[in-house]
Specification:
The protein is an alpha+beta fold. It has 2 helices and 2 strands, in the order E-E-H-H. The chain has a single domain, classed as Double Stranded RNA Binding Domain, CATH 3.30.160. The longest helix is centred in the C-terminal third of the chain and has 42 residues, at 49-90. It is elongated, with a radius of gyration of 20 Å. The N and C termini lie far apart (57 Å).
């Protein structure tokens, strides 16, 4: 059963459902989103709340995609190095 949790985004408090044991992660996620929204609002103070939220979500999604790509490339490089080391040991 989910619990209700209050989060604040741009000085607006929202009550959201939260799965048990996930309150910390949800609050951290809300903090990341709020900081991103504050940055967007500071750069473009005339934007509507909806546009601030959309641009913030797009920025966070881009950061996630970039991070995921970097992690995948690193994993592939490590896998290749492991193969080279294994082949060197077998020789």
């Amino acid at each position: 059963m989910s619990q209700e949790l209050s989060i604040t985004l741009l000085d607006k408090t929202l009550t959201v459902a939260c799965p048990p044991g996930q309150a910390g992660a949800l609050l951290e996620s809300a903090d990341i989103l709020n900081k991103q929204m504050l940055m967007v609002q500071a750069q473009k103070p005339t934007l509507s709340l909806l546009n601030i939220a959309l641009i913030s979500a797009l920025n966070i999604s881009h950061q996630l995609l970039t991070h995921t790509s970097t992690v995948q490339a690193s994993s592939e490089a490590i896998e290749n190095l492991c193969q080279v080391i294994s082949q060197a040991i077998e020789s």
